[in-house]
Amino acid sequence: MNAPQAITVTLNPAIDQLVTLDALLPGQVQRALGSVQAPGGKGINVAAALAGLGVSTAALGVLGRDNAGMFEALFAQRGIADACLRVPGQTRTNIKLVADGGRQTTDINLPGLMLAEAHLDAVMSTLARYLRPGLAVVLSGSLPAGLPADSWARLQAQAVAAGADVLLDTSEAPLAAALATAPHAAMPWAIKPNREELQAATGLRLDGRDALLAAARRLLDRGLGLAVVSMGEEGALFATTQGAVIARPPQWARGSSVGAGDAMVAGMVAARLRGLDLADTARLSTASALAWLQAVPAREVDANRVQALAASVLLEPCQWP
Ligand SMILES: O=P(O)(O)OC[C@H]1O[C@](O)(CO)[C@@H](O)[C@@H]1O
């Protein structure tokens, strides 16, 4: 493969076990209607969606050697360059309980492999081989046990210093560390938290739309290029220093929602690589998430389908408070 346009980094990948139930009844013995497994973890899903959008992509991360086959099959099938390290043991299996005809998904995400700083160093060395100005670098997901909370912040600093465009999609302390400590020049290009994640990372109460816009504006003033805040069925806020819009799909698809946010991240990256403006970025990203949902359980997006859906995405302009 020639130099990829994007690289995704997944420090805590997962095999997703989707268990379908009629209804979720906590505390009761239940029989599942069915169960399927798929390779996942945030950056892995982003790589799968980017491949569908026609973006050449490498997947970097840390896989347990004992069950790496499912990931290797995905990479081979989708033409994703495999840059993942292999370590002894098994990649975690996350349980997704899909109930009520797909209207409700309960995620039980396990801690993952126990890693050490040496693993982070190895990831940084591999990333260094790919880094170049304009490369899209997606840093995505939780941190496995054993890695410090500033792991994403360190990778972000490394990639930004090389002139890459960093999209950071994480939560809690790792998000706070990457945003709070980054000087203007080391801020990521983009983030995609949900309202609660942004609230936790900034320490601000983000009850209404104005509060959300003000929080996004503060980050943009500190050097962030694009703030996307997902708001579930209300859509997503897309904000740059040029303006802000709320994007909503014309209708939602039924079925498991697992990975739809990752497909939205892939849309943000594809839009960046195509040089799209705010409105078209919001359309493409929302359409990518919707295409992923419509393709469940295939875990893919089809570029033609995304293009068709993008035209039907509803945009509502927002005024800065
Ligand atoms: O890294 P986290 O936050 O535990 O999330 C991992 C989960 O998120 C997903 O990537 C969906 O966004 C799943 O494939 C995976 O199980």
From TrEMBL:
Coiled-coil stretches noted in the UniProt entry, renumbered to this chain: none
Alphabetical list of NCBIfam families matching this protein: 1-PFK
Keyword Kinase part of the UniProt annotation: yes
Asked if the record carries the keyword Kinase, the reply is yes
Any stretches that span the bilayer, and where are they?
none
Q: What is this protein called?
A: Phosphofructokinase
Q: What Pfam families does the database record attribute to this sequence?
A: PfkB
- Domain of life (superkingdom): Bacteria
Q: Which UniProt keywords apply?
A: ATP-binding, Kinase, Nucleotide-binding, Transferase
Q: Which CDD domains did the record assign?
A: FruK_PfkB_like
What family does the entry list? Belongs to the carbohydrate kinase PfkB family.
Signal peptide stretch: none
Q: Where is the Carbohydrate kinase PfkB domain?
A: 12-294
